[in-house]
Design brief:
Distance between the termini: 37 Å
Largest sheet: 2 strands, antiparallel
Order of helices and strands: EEHHH
CATH architecture: Orthogonal Bundle
Number of domains: 1
Helix content: 40-55%
Number of strands: 2
Number of helices: 3
Radius of gyration: 14 Å
CATH superfamily: Fe(II) trafficking protein YggX
Shape: globular
Strand order of the largest sheet: 1-2
CATH topology: YggX-like
Strand content: 5-15%
């Protein structure tokens, strides 16, 4: 039986994540409040951030940036970062 959560990102009920996707308090909040559909949206957004900003997930400063953006993506009205010249693929 899957776990249902009230997703804060999509503002609807959806299937919850099976495990916390990130360590610490942020991962716990995501696990409790984000559905799988919204998590998949984040993964696409995170890929765009890594590619467009040329981030390295092993760089501690880059990880801090990604974590900050993840928090904004799910729990803030503030828009997550996109490069000024970014155009999504067709």
């Amino acid at each position: 039986m899957s776990r249902i959560v009230q997703c804060v990102k999509l503002n609807k009920e959806g299937e919850g994540l099976k495990v916390a996707p990130y360590p610490g308090e942020l991962g716990k909040r995501i696990y409790q409040n984000v559905c799988q559909e919204a998590w998949q949206e984040w993964l696409r957004h995170q890929t765009m951030l890594i590619n467009e900003y040329r981030l390295s997930p092993i760089d501690p400063e880059h990880r801090k940036f990604i974590e900050k953006e993840m928090d904004k993506f799910f729990f803030s009205d503030e828009a997550s970062a996109k490069p000024d010249d970014f155009t999504p693929p067709n």
